[in-house]
Specification:
It is a single chain. Helix 8 links the parallel strand 8 (171-175) and strand 9. This protein is α/β, with parallel strands linked by helices. The protein is built from twelve helices and ten strands. Helix 9 (203-215) runs parallel beside helix 11 (233-246) and helix 11 runs antiparallel to helix 12. The protein has helices at residues 3-12, 27-30, 39-43, 57-63, 96-101, 118-133, 154-166, 181-186, 203-215, 225-228, 233-246, 250-264; strands at 19-23, 52-55, 72-75, 77-78, 91-92, 106-111, 139-143, 171-175, 192-195, 220-222. Strands 1-2-3-6-7-8-9-10 form an eight-stranded parallel β-barrel, surrounded by six helices. Strands 4-5 form a two-stranded antiparallel ribbon.
Length: 265
């Protein structure tokens, strides 16, 4: 692996081999998402607990302090919205020059395997990989399912992750599934990070599926709504970090959540 590529990945994946990415890119198709109306204010108390931000160039420039910033995974695919016909109809929204100009540690691209736009989004990924490889910049593939939530099963996720890795993604972000998640990870020759998806009903539910996913081979998480939409986002970030980086049990992580919540109170 080239020095530049290895160096950038080391900013994202910590010395223990694990990572906690905080996505705040939801506005690129959802608009002013609840609790993310003012991204800069939302993330400020969470930054000490995360390893990198997954963000669009617009929010990066307008809401994230450039001095002492966390490493950035720059979202470079988009072009759809919740008001449109199909969220899978994405194109490339950001140039390689912008990725370099913004000093991103990685680029992030969504792929929609099984959708009407499968071919288009897979070629989006391949194109970004081709360009980023020239400059030693890793690409994270996001195995998105849009509104088709029933596709969150191991067979589909394994297919999506493997194809993304085959096309050159250095990291793959995918959803956890209750059955056979270990097979999803084992079938992907590059590191897998767990996506959060819709906000869960309780904190313990989040901690349980993240703990299970880490035990089954994921190297980390890319959680947004289940952190900053929590009633206690800092406590949630602390608890999740303890699972990712300290190998905490669900009970220990929940104790950390409750203790952090009590201290704030």
């Amino acid at each position: 692996m080239d020095w530049g590529m290895k160096n950038r990945l080391s900013r994202l994946i910590q010395t223990d081999g694990h990572c906690f990415f905080l996505p705040i890119d939801h506005g690129y198709f959802q608009g002013p998402t609840s609790c993310l109306e003012k991204p800069g204010e939302t993330i400020k108390p969470l930054l000490p607990f995360v390893d990198a931000l997954f963000v669009t160039r617009g929010v990066l420039r307008s809401c994230v302090d450039a001095v002492g910033s966390k490493p950035v995974i720059l979202r470079v695919s988009g072009g759809t919205s919740m008001a449109g016909k199909d969220l899978a109809n994405e194109g490339i929204s950001t140039s390689i020059e912008e990725i370099i100009r913004l000093n991103a540690s990685a680029a992030g691209v969504s792929v929609f395997v099984g959708s009407d736009y499968e071919h288009q989004t897979l070629l989006n990924l391949a194109k970004v990989v081709n360009e980023c490889e020239n400059y030693g910049i890793p690409v994270m593939a996001v195995t998105a399912v849009g509104k088709e939530m029933e596709k969150r099963e191991a067979r589909y996720l394994a297919l999506s992750c493997r194809i993304a890795a085959e096309l050159g993604a250095k990291v793959v972000k995918t959803y956890w599934c209750e059955k056979d998640f270990d097979k999803v990870v084992e079938g992907c020759p590059v590191p897998v990070v767990i996506a959060g998806g819709p906000k869960c009903n309780s904190e313990i539910e989040v901690l349980e599926f993240i703990h299970d996913g880490m035990k089954k081979g994921a190297i980390g998480i890319n959680l947004g709504r289940n952190v900053w939409q929590s009633k206690h986002p800092v406590a949630m970030a602390r608890a999740l970090r303890s699972i990712v980086h300290d190998n905490a049990t669900v009970k220990k992580a929940h104790d950390i959540f409750q203790d952090s919540q009590s201290q704030k109170a």
